[in-house]
Amino acid sequence: MTPKELKVLQNIHLMMLELERESPHGFSPEKINALKELLGVFINHEELELRKVSEIAKHLHSSMSEKHYVSFLVPIERLLQKSLRDDEFLILSEDKAPSQIEKIPLVLVLYNLRSAFNVGSIFRTAECFGVRKIFLCGYTPLPTQDKLAKTAMGTQSLIEWQEAAKIFDLVRELKSDGYQIVSLETTSHARPVQEDFKKQPTALIVGNERFGIDRDILDISDQVRKIPLRGHKNSLNVGAALAIATYEFSRQFTL
């Protein structure tokens, strides 16, 4: 990518972020058309990734949902290797080899997470508590991406992970393997996370930082759990919430 092309891509990203900020009030047709025109710069580019950027234009329209829009913003952020936050610190213990660490019967399912920072943080949490495996679904970033690898600070090589294209197929497979499916979400029927978990292998699902877990995924879950909060805000950062839930499961498992 030439410096000029990089500048165009950065301008596309800035324009898309501006539209995202305005999205709760609707998308301006004029701004959508301006964005489409800018995306068209890459329509005949020799690099496949940049040609894919231009294809976003045909999916954009002023009546689309905010959730639909974000799914097109994410690839631009990935191409620019953007991260919502960054982190520099991690202390790794050399007392035990990875093969000596006791695993708890818990796997994590990360569905449509957007932030490489959040996913890297979750890898660190999962490794610290001895989680068996992490499944990465939808557009959740992979550890092969530089920003995630930087935030995970090496833990991505210490815990098993797998990309799963279709979350419903994954849930069915986990259920057939004896896992109970628990979604972590703030809903009216969710049970507090500190209530007893069944003593069986568990798959814990978390969803997008803004939109949470889709209703149809909640419907096929065996349980929905929430973290009771007292403040004005009714949700935590997804990495922080998953750390609390993972700790609670680990605490109960080791009792």
Q: Which structural class do you get from the secondary structure elements?
A: alpha/beta
Task: Give the tally of structural domains.
Answer: 2
For the record, what is the CATH homologous superfamily label of the largest domain?
SPOUT methyltransferase, trefoil knot domain
Please estimate the helix content.
40-55%
Could you characterize the architecture of this molecule?
By secondary structure, the protein is of the alpha/beta class. It folds into two domains: 3-79, no CATH class; 98-254, 3-Layer(aba) Sandwich (Alpha/beta knot), CATH 3.40.1280. It has nine helices and seven strands. The protein has a seven-stranded parallel sheet with strand order 3-2-1-6-4-7-5. The longest helix has 20 residues, at 3-22. The chain is globular.
Short structural description:
With 255 residues, this protein is of the alpha/beta class. The protein has two domains: 3-79, no CATH class; 98-254, Alpha/beta knot, CATH 3.40.1280.10.
What attributes characterize this protein structure?
255 residues, alpha/beta, Alpha/beta knot, 2 domains, seven-stranded parallel beta sheet, 9 helices, 7 strands, globular
Walk me through the topology:
Blueprint: H1 3-22, H2 29-39, H3 48-55, H4 66-79, E1 104-111, H5 116-129, E2 131-137, H6 146-152, E3 160-164, H7 167-176, E4 180-184, E5 191-192, E6 202-206, H8 215-220, E7 223-226, H9 238-254
Parallel strand pairs: 1-2, 1-6, 2-3, 4-6, 4-7, 5-7
Helix pairs in contact: 1-2, 1-4, 5-6, 5-9
